[in-house]
User: What shape does this take?
Amino acid sequence: MADKFDVIVIGAGPGGYVAAIRAAQMGLKTACVEKWVNKEGKTVHGGTCLNVGCIPSKALLETSHKFVEARDHFAEVGIEVDEPKANIAKMLEFKNSVINKNVGGISALFKANGVTSLEGKGKVTSSTEVEVTDHDGNATTYTADNIVIAAGSVPVEIPPTPLTDDLIVTSTGALEFTEVPKRLGVIGAGVIGLELGSVWKRLGAEVTVLEAMDSFLPMVDSAIAKETQKLLKKQGLDIKLGARVTGSEVKDSEVVVKYTDGDGEQEMTFDKLIVCVGRRPYTQGVIADGVGVELDERGFIFVDDQCRTNVPNVYAIGDCVRGPMLAHKASEEGVMVADIIAGHKAEMNYDVIPSVIYTSPEVAWVGMTEQDAKTKGIEVKTGSFPFSANGRALANNAPEGMAKIIADAETDRILGMHIVSQHAGELIAQGVIAMEFGSSAEDLALTCYAHPSTSEAIHEAALAVEGHAIHMANRKKR
Ligand code: FAD
Ligand code: NAD
Assistant: This one.
């Protein structure tokens, strides 16, 4: 029998690697099993997020944004440059270097914290045993007092658009296009569709997004969603709502996509097609038959609020369990579970998890929308403020968007914050902290903000809850 551990974590994505580091920091003897190998055949940590998700997509979003700034906006502020050219090979090289730095960082953190890295595929064979099959097929069984499953998720595939090697791809393939497709089809106007659609649109593709639902970004406050849709349309993203994809055919090196909308059957031809219709939990081969860990009706590992499965001392976190599929949610669950295993009291506030879509401008939100509150019968008051009235946003040549705060009508407690603006992903931290501290809109309104800063738009939105925004005409009189 091989080594015995206090904790074995299966999966080294942002859920698993954070759980392993935290457990080791708590003095627990910890191992983390990872099966992901890069193109050079080397085991890499960081999971979807670092290898094919958050980090590479943000590298391409940033470089393509800089390209658009140089091409379309430098001249507006008096910077004259020759027509810039996008060097896709160099952009991919930059993206890959960012991935390598990040994944290398996790391996270094494992060493520094004393986490044992086990390379290969992990399988829970009992409530205290994990079998690890290395890349040569050799299996070793390790024992542990506690097991944390952090196996993540994979893209959903749909029958009308079976994937091909290079024409019909998931987000992973869309991070690797070596040239700009002339006509790019995107199925799903969700987070991935809007982010990767934006990347390739900025670099010159004609992008059509086919979205089955009639509504755009239903999880975002409708005022912010409406503004976002308008801004993305202005950038040339053709978002077709109520368009359900029913079939596809690969002809030579083109993809013909069939879909139905309000006008009946339609057809469009693309040079590349990205299928991004959601992700599903990855649990295949992770738990041996007979261990008894239950899955829910959608295939997620069933857990309670503290990520305990129905089997004692077996926990599951991140994308393979209920809740939003976000890296920071996975990481916070990892911290909570490690603390619980170490004997501490720990919990997570699932009502205050921020979301960001890294388009330009960014869309960010936390908590309820005004519509959610109405559905729940909660009476609210709201305050909104446009970035076109914010001095710093004007100086940044980024006046698009607005911030909106939703507060309880009776208690004034902040229930939600929704923003579309440059750097909304940074600004939303104010809403997260305010909500974690149980702040009222008045608390933010009475806070002194640095000037000039785009954060002042949040201050003004908080003032606007009582109709007292300073830089807006529609004030209430006391
Ligand atoms: P994962 O990151 O999927 O990691 C699971 C790990 O477990 C993998 O490394 C896998 O190889 C390993 N594993 C699975 N089974 C086994 C086994 N049996 N043995 C050993 N190892 C195993 N989220 C954000 O918050 N912000 C973003 O900007 C963002 N952008 C994204 C962009 C894209 C294109 C995609 C696809 C996703 C993005 N996400 C983003 C979502 C984010 O990547 C996930 O929510 C996050 O990675 C989930 O973390 P996790 O640890 O649960 O799973
Ligand atoms: P998503 O759930 O965000 O969006 C999928 C969209 O596809 C939905 O709007 C859905 O209505 C649509 N759809 C489903 N079937 C369809 C069909 N047959 N035809 C047309 N449209 C269809 O999923 P995603 O964009 O694939 O992202 C997956 C996950 O990754 C998300 O849960 C997200 O949280 C995470 N992610 C997060 C970020 C971020 O935080 N910035 C970035 C990328 C991905």
User: Anything to note?
Assistant: Residues 4-154+280-341 form a domain with the FAD/NAD(P)-binding domain fold (CATH 3.50.50.60).
